[in-house]
Amino acid sequence: MATDTDIPMLEMRGITKRFPGVLANDAVDLTVRSGEVHTLLGENGAGKSTLMKILFGLYQPDEGEIRLNGEAIEVESPSFAIAHGIGMIHQHFMLVPTLTVAENVALGTRSTRWPLTDLPVVSRRVEEISEKFGLAIDPSIEVWKLAVGERQRVEIIKALYRDARLLVLDEPTAVLTPQEVEEFFGILNEMRSTGHGLIFISHKLREVVAISDEITVLRNGRVTGHTTPAESDRHQLATMMVGREVSLAPDRPEIEPGESRLVIRNLVVESDRGTTAVDGLDLDVRAGEIVGIAGVSGNGQRELAEVIAGLRDAETGSSVQINGVEVVGLGARIARDAGLAYVPEERMRDGAIGDFTVSENLVLVDHGSEEFSRRGLLRFGVIRRHSQELVDRFEVKTPGLDTATSTLSGGNIQKLILARELASGPTVLLAAQPTRGVDIGAAEYIHEQIIEQRSGGAAALVVSEDLDELMGIADRIAVMFEGRIMGIVEIEDATREALGLMMAGVHEGSPA
Amino acid sequence: MSDFFTATVLFSTLAAGIRLSTPFLFAGLGEMVGQKSGVLNLGVEGVMLLSAFFAYWTALSTGSLWLAVLVGTLVGLLMGVVYGLITVVFHAEQGISGIGIFLFGLGFSDLMFQEKVGTPKFTSKLPSVDIPLLSDIPHVGVAFFQHSAMTYAAFVMVPLVMILLRRTTFGTNVRAAGENPESADSLGVSVARIRFSAIVIGNTLAGVAGTALVLELGIFQPNLTAGRGFIAIALVYFGAWRAPGVMAGALLYGVVEATVITWKALGIIPRSLSDISAMAPAVITIAALVILARRVKPPAALTQPFSRH
Description:
- The structure holds two protein chains of two kinds.
- Chain A is α/β, with parallel strands linked by helices.
- In chain A, about 30% of the residues lie in helices and about 25% in strands.
- Chain A folds into three domains: about 5-240, P-loop containing nucleotide triphosphate hydrolases (Rossmann fold); about 250-340 and about 425-510, P-loop containing nucleotide triphosphate hydrolases (Rossmann fold, 3-Layer(aba) Sandwich), CATH 3.40.50.300; about 355-425, no CATH class.
- Chain A has helices at about 50-55, 80-85, 100-105, 120-135, 150-160, 180-195, 205-210, 235-240, 300-310, 330-335, 345-350, 360, 380-395, 410-425, 440-455, 465-475, 495-505, and strands at about 10-20, 20-30, 35-40, 65-70, 70-75, 85-90, 165-170, 195-200, 215-220, 220-225, 260-270, 275-285, 290-295, 320, 325, 340-345, 375, 375-380, 430, 460-465, 475-480, 485-490.
- Helix content of chain B is about 70%, strand content about 0%.
- In chain B, helix 1 (about 5-35) runs antiparallel to helix 9 (about 190-215), helix 2 (about 45-60) runs antiparallel to helix 3 and helix 3 packs antiparallel against helix 9 (about 190-215).
- Chain B is globular and about 65 Å long.
- Classes of the chains: A alpha/beta, B mainly alpha.
- The interface between A and B is medium-sized, with 28 and 22 residues.
């Protein structure tokens, strides 16, 4: 398999990178061999991205050296990295939606017919690569028309088109269904067998164990462990990553669900682009249960959440009742007064105001209430006392109540939003992507809080693209596809395979 | 009204419309190229004024129209370099910088005019170039084939700009820089260089637009352009960032303007309404803009300065 095992494909030695106030990489070593999938495991802020940006020439290291096939190199720019066979598949796709696949692939390369483009030549090579690695794609189609899984293939083709031998894959599976992940691993295996070196960045432990040959764990900018899937299981990996014992499956006390608190009937919602985002959806969430909404992003989850929260209008005939109160099209205040708490997907756009202080954000919903203001004037003493209480209770790590919220970490901002939303004792909780971009410790805490609300009798609807998250906390999982519920399964009966098929639009029971 | 619906009047109105659309077409296409790369240029009007004045001054003092065209074009190019420095190199906010360029062009062209010329004098105008044979076709010849070289050039620019944006590597890079500059950057395309070039092309065309305007009239006066540069920006939106769309908008504007002029001359519009009717082209274009507003999105990175984080 590997052609030259003596000299590693890549050696990064003693890489150190400082940013003002932060040591992002502290003497990090990484060795990748040809024909190997090497996982970089670590939480957000552990230094994985910094290390990879250094490898790709986006940052310059303060110390340390990089050797490619035994030869010391200084990666001064992405062009240099590309020219030396280093390819990067970014987490957020680096594609131009309005250009075709071939145009995207050819971008930045030499044209044989310069100054004109040579798209037929490019297309032919794209087809060759597609065939060799099983990456079916039509080169003449515009990228915006492609599904997420297909866009990822374009990214891989882009790298292979530039003859990349070493590929960095930054959280490549975050947006894929379980079946697409399987296909994707097939492609990785193909590249592994052709002697490519692959750096796989992920915090999805199941996948890390499934695909890796080697695993390097980073925490706070340092390498804290080096292992293989044979030596460490998921639980051990999580512990290495976080630095303390974590429970991957939170406790969920058995309780009987009560009456329906959130009732959705025949909901039809338009997307911003004028297409039908939610297409006749019915759903009940009862007191004392967590219903998870699974699905690949862009299947109407966002619109569904926004309508329930009163942030978006629905078509006539739609109905959303919170504790029996109709809320469609009446605005956020009515929904909140009916008993809703909302933890939005875009936490810095819909959940908190970055320039406001911690304390201001904590009373943002209720600052007009009798409790916090009198005759239009804010009661700062009461607000401070209340904020301090919430900060303590919800373990928000902040230098002070007057700190600008935008300076907190993602996990702490999310805890702050959760603190505000749960403080009022909601009867219906709607949380969209509650732990996206949040470190494991904070995620664990957020899950506990959601479960606590549910066990206390609240009805919770949790929208997430992370199937493992939903399988850990939900009582029932509903899968959304093209604006409809494909099926709802009780957690006891839920399998990743069945859910994955529904996420891809295949009906329960119908032939795959 | 019946005076208007004669072949001679209709075709000569069309001819005037095409002639009047020339500056809009140059400026609109230029603005479009810049916007495609992600840079909004609100300074078109100012650049047109500067080029118009310097082209006029050159024609006045040398008597050479070709030298005037060259100078007007170079002034546009120079302003492109200036605007490129401001927005691409120094990452200044594009809206405000553009307004600054406009105000500078308005004030400086006025100042130079007062200092160097003072009283308006006529220069020679661009001669009309009759296309052999075609220009002899009754009516049609007048409308389409008896224009100045500048007018022909403006319409030749339409396919040229299309080819530039659609069929060249530079054009692909321009579109990438306007839609997703991070992507272009990650592939080793210099977003700064691409945007700078697009701005220079755009401003050069704005300079040509100002030159075409002044040499068509044969005379300069302060604020000669009277908002044409701003209309050109609107035409880019009207045309949905496509060269033929911009051309359609420019023609619409030109023809409406020509019709108003003809109607005034024929007395169809009473004198007392002449000031109001002067607004007609703008009002009609804006109305068309609103009615025809398709769901076409501007380049995703328009007005966003690019730098690596």
